[in-house]
């Protein structure tokens, strides 16, 4: 189990031993994992991975969960072939590593994926969710991409976009009360700024006792008291998508 005081303890808890129900595809210059529901759907969700990359079983588990709820789900490699972070890496090098992977510079890849979803999958209504690094990317997209309908940012690193709050689309922000990466005062400030500047529907929710990464981690095996909050976070995410897609 990870040391929770690390700069980004996304790897707390066991990884899912999970193969995924979907398949890997090549979308122009990007590799992606895609899963489609058994009956045709015109609703799709782009899933933006955390620092551990697009192949993490936990993230694919969530993509498949979305598909079980009627969505085409696609998790592209937004690092575009650059190595994902490994738990064995030296955290002292993390700041330099993340500088070369900017959550605010994924627009080209998102445009490619949107075109694929519309042209190849028949998607008409498309939302986005993201975890940690991907949660920051969601906030970035909600500020500028006109083609997405809604977003869910799960413990997105607020400091990446702390001065920008004029969201274009309804956005749901999920945070853990005990998240060492995102102190509660940052969350309070985010709420204040959204209240002042945001013209669309949004919600900021803090889940009691939860640490960074709780919604897409398998923590219930370690701390059974976390299970209801993990399930609630997943249900809230899907309810938000259902409301706006």
Secondary structure layout plus pairing:
Layout: E1 23-27, E2 30-35, E3 43-48, H1 57-68, E4 72-76, H2 94-99, H3 107-121, E5 125-131, H4 133-144, E6 151-154, E7 171-176, H5 184-197, E8 202-207, H6 227-244
Protein name: Carboxymethylenebutenolidase homolog
Main location: cytoplasm
Subcellular location: Cytoplasm, Cytosol
Task: Describe the 3D structure.
By secondary structure, the protein is an alpha/beta fold. The chain has a single domain (23-244), classed as Rossmann fold. The protein is built from six helices and eight strands; from the N terminus they run E-E-E-H-E-H-H-E-H-E-E-H-E-H. It has helices at 57-68, 94-99, 107-121, 133-144, 184-197, 227-244; strands spanning 23-27, 30-35, 43-48, 72-76, 125-131, 151-154, 171-176, 202-207. An eight-stranded mixed β-sheet has the order 1-2-4-3-5-6-7-8, with helices on both faces. Strand 5 (125-131), helix 4 and strand 6 form a beta-alpha-beta unit. The longest helix has 18 residues, at 227-244. Residues 1-14 have low confidence and may be disordered.
* Count of domain modules: 1
Question: What oligomeric state do these chains adopt?
Answer: single chain
By CATH, the topology is: Rossmann fold
> What is the name of the CATH class?
Alpha Beta
Q: Largest sheet at a glance?
A: 8 strands, mixed
Order of helices and strands: EEEHEHHEHEEHEH
Largest sheet, spatial ordering of strands: 1-2-4-3-5-6-7-8
Extended strand count: 8
Poorly predicted runs of 5 or more residues: 1-14
Mean pLDDT over all positions: 90
Pfam families: DLH (PF01738)
Family: Belongs to the dienelactone hydrolase family.
GO cellular component, one term: cytosol
GO molecular function: hydrolase activity
């Amino acid at each position: 189990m990870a040391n929770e005081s690390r700069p980004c303890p996304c790897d707390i808890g066991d990884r899912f031993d999970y193969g995924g129900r979907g398949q890997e595809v090549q979308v122009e210059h990007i590799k992606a994992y895609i899963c489609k529901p058994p009956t045709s759907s015109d609703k799709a969700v782009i899933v933006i991975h955390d620092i551990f990359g697009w192949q993490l079983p936990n993230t694919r588990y969530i993509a498949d969960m979305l598909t079980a709820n009627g969505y085409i789900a696609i998790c592209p490699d937004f690092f575009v072939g650059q190595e994902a972070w490994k738990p064995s890496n030296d955290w002292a090098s993390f700041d330099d590593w993340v500088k070369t992977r900017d959550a605010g510079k994924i627009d080209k890849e998102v445009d490619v994926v949107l075109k694929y979803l519309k042209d190849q999958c028949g998607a008409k209504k498309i939302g986005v969710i993201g975890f940690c690094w991907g949660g920051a990317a969601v906030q970035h997209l909600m500020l500028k991409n006109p083609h997405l309908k809604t977003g869910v940012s799960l413990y997105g690193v607020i400091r990446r976009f702390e001065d920008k709050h004029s969201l274009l689309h309804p956005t749901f922000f999920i945070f853990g009360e005990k998240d060492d990466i995102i102190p509660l005062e940052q969350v309070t400030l985010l709420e204040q700024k959204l209240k002042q500047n945001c013209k669309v529907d949004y919600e900021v929710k803090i889940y009691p006792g939860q640490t960074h990464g709780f919604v897409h981690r398998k923590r219930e095996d370690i701390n059974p008291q976390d299970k209801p909050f993990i399930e609630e976070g997943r249900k809230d995410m899907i309810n938000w998508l259902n409301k706006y897609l």
